[in-house]
Specification:
The chain contains no helices and 14 strands. It is an all-beta fold.
Length: 172
């Protein structure tokens, strides 16, 4: 399955076979509302969990099967409810034995076990993943990590920092 998520929290699942024959002029993958845009796309097995994170530090985990498979023309269903001004910054297809690293715009990060994320139903506000006050800034993204991963952080000025997830302790 192909899982698509928009900036405004809409999620859609489409059978990947519907993208097997793409014309040179392209094909429609999702119907978007005027103020929305497609921000994340990933492949899934059909039996996974999905984590969606927002800029204001909220995250939701729900079972993929809560989103029915739709045709390419469909616009999708609500994946996460957003507060005014908030928007989706990331989506990951996950399993319980992994960790997720949340990164903020001021360079702070937090590592959380996927298993510590309670499984909710899609369409809610989710839970607080990381504080987004003045010190941290907003969340800019999330990524699945384990102890063998390597993390590259790239600042706006182009400076790159490489670190191991072992340097970021796992928190609740």
């Amino acid at each position: 399955n192909m899982v698509l998520v928009t900036k405004n929290g809409t999620i859609k699942r489409t059978d990947a076979q519907e993208f097997a024959k793409v014309r040179s002029t392209g094909i429609r993958a999702i119907s978007l509302k005027d103020d929305d845009e497609l921000v994340f796309c990933s492949l899934s097995s059909g039996n996974d969990s999905i984590v969606i994170a927002t800029a204001y530090g909220h995250g939701i985990r729900f079972l993929e099967r809560e989103v029915r498979v739709m045709g390419r023309q469909a616009s999708g269903v609500r994946g996460i409810k957003l507060k005014t001004g908030d928007y989706v910054v990331g989506m990951q297809i996950v399993s319980d034995d992994k960790d997720i690293l949340f990164a903020t715009e001021r360079g702070y990060g937090k590592r959380v076990r996927v298993g510590d994320f309670r499984v909710a139903h899609r369409g809610g506000f989710g839970v607080r993943t990381i504080p987004t006050h003045e010190r941290n800034g907003n969340v800019v993204g999330l990524v699945i990590v384990d102890d063998e991963s390597e993390i590259l952080l790239i600042g706006q000025s182009g400076k790159i920092i490489r670190l191991s997830p072992k340097e970021v302790r796992t928190m609740g």
